[in-house]
Design goal:
The protein is of the alpha/beta class and 390 residues long. The chain has 13 helices and 17 strands. Helix 4 links the parallel strand 9 and strand 10. About 1% of the residues have low confidence. It comes from Pseudooceanicola albus. This is Alpha-D-ribose 1-methylphosphonate 5-triphosphate diphosphatase.
């Protein structure tokens, strides 16, 4: 089979990937892997076995695990008010993530909409979107493993009703508490929020003041009820509960009291430090690290990394950033295994996925082969459960 192994019934039952820099949990060493029936069967060293795929000294790492990405929404609406067919958007999103080395993704879908307020594009879509993802997964149309992440917008009109449309049978993996009320958390700087909603969503500058007053009123009326409903729903689904954009120690203490296990994008050192003190894992954006800072003016991911307060990276809005940021962290720390763990073992553990995220005997053969060209990681092979998908 020219280095791929033995085929039985059209499927490859065994493959050997050799002459690779294997990124193991605690070290990087030259060796080979034997893949059998979708799992890593053996980890070896020495000469390239006969019939193996020669990886030519490239890195071979666990498939990346992405807990929070807005990439699907970008495919659903590639330009303001330009809606794309959903199934086509899902397939394109899947292919893009696969090409970037992501083999498990928790697709972030917003629950909580504004149907009466100034922004007409903040409409409901979560239930039909989830149905379409699940259907495409059942049909075998997707290359990588897709799971569901519900982003619960507490500053909205319809959150409780939308949450009621989901149940344990949907396999919701993560529920995150989102509060995008301006003037706090991610948008403590109102001017940054104005740039975001007017630039990305086409709201007129003249209507901005009316819009933020509408959000303040909405938060006062429904925010507390919505937050409690989202916490209850996560428990009902059996999902991991996450916070979003914690800024103060007090906010982290509230998160801890709710049973939150993951903090997405804390905006200050104070919040990140409080997360670690309470056992909450910190996710930071890979684009923040690659760009050298937050686009919203919040804390730098690299600063948290240097303080030992960064556990997990997320691609957020740039899928290709995930592998690049992990490599940069590995180089910065002088420990490639540690850098790669922020996009593989650490997110897998946080999501309760014990069958992936590491190169180890018996684990899923979700793997990425890449080389460095001009300092940029270039993927040269992607495997999901032992099947080459890219």
């Amino acid at each position: 089979m020219d280095g791929a192994g033995q085929e039985i019934g059209g499927r490859t039952s065994e493959q050997v990937l050799a002459n690779a820099q294997l990124v193991l949990p605690d070290e990087v060493r030259r060796g080979h892997l034997v893949l059998r029936d979708g799992r890593i069967a053996e980890i070896g060293s020495g000469a390239v076995p006969r019939g193996a795929l020669d990886c030519e000294g490239d890195y071979l790492i666990p498939g990346l695990v992405e807990l929070h990405t807005d990439n699907l929404e970008r495919h659903l609406m590639p330009r303001p008010k330009a809606h794309w067919p959903h199934n086509a958007a899902i397939v394109a999103h899947d292919a893009e993530l696969c090409g970037c080395g992501i083999t498990t993704v928790f697709d972030a879908i917003r629950v909580g909409s504004i149907v009466e307020g100034p922004r007409g594009d903040y409409r409901r879509y979560a239930r039909p979107m989830a149905d379409e993802i699940l259907a495409m997964r059942r049909q075998g149309a997707l290359r990588i493993d897709h799971k569901l992440h519900l982003r619960a917008e507490t500053c909205s009109e319809t959150l409780i009703e939308e949450l009621s449309e989901f149940g344990p049978e949907d396999g919701i993996g993560i529920v995150s508490l989102m509060d995008h009320t301006p003037g706090q958390r991610q948008f403590s700087d109102i001017s940054k929020f104005e740039d975001y909603v007017c630039g990305k969503h086409g709201l007129s500058r003249a209507g901005f003041e009316d819009y933020i007053q509408f959000l303040y009123d909405l938060h006062d009326q429904l925010g507390a009820r919505h937050e409690a409903a989202a916490v209850e729903a996560a428990g009902r689904f059996g999902a991991v509960l996450a916070s979003h954009d914690d800024t103060t120690r007090a906010q982290v203490m509230t998160s801890h009291a709710y049973g939150i296990r993951v903090a997405e994008f804390p905006t200050t050192v104070e919040a990140a430090r409080a997360c670690h003190e309470t056992g909450i894992r910190v996710i930071m954006g890979a684009p923040n690290l690659v760009r050298g800072g937050s686009h919203s003016g919040n804390v730098s991911a690299l600063e948290l990394a240097d303080l030992g307060l960064l556990d997990i990276l997320s691609s957020d809005y740039v899928p290709a950033a995930l592998l690049q940021a992990a490599v940069q962290l590995g180089q910065h720390w002088g420990d490639m295994a540690r850098g790669i763990a922020t996009v593989s073992a650490a997110p897998a553990d946080a999501a309760g996925l014990s069958d992936r995220g590491r190169i180890g005997a018996g684990l899923r053969a979700d793997l990425v082969r890449f080389s460095l060209r001009g300092g940029v990681p270039v993927t040269r092979g992607i495997w999901v459960e032992g099947e080459r998908v890219g």
